[in-house]
Amino acid sequence: RRVEVATGAVTTLAGSGEGGDADGVGDAAQFNRPVGIAIIPDGGALFVAEFWNHKIRRVEVATGAVTTLAGSGTMGSADPAGGGGDGRGDYARGQRRGWRRGRRGRSGGVLRPTRPCHQPRWRRAVC
pLDDT, tens digit, for every residue of 62-73? Predict the structure, then answer.
């Protein structure tokens, strides 16, 4: 959801309201039990950690376009429980067994974990 602070108006940025797994723009996108959200400092994109889809999705704030950033839909190393990125390619994400820190190349590519961070809270995940 997007909230216009001046007016209090609430609109849907991305998602259809139906649980599912679909990249797309606006209401063509589907999420399934989002459990964490983080916005990059410049406000241009946000990241959504999905519990049931085992994915991390990127949402472009200007367009509502949703793409899969990490995860194949199968439980494993992309089994998120929250997280965030800094806009330069660094990210930290929660998973059931602790935090991981990693990097995604600025031109795209594979998320490469750099090392585990066994910190139970995002605010303490300084690795």
Answer: 999 999 988 877
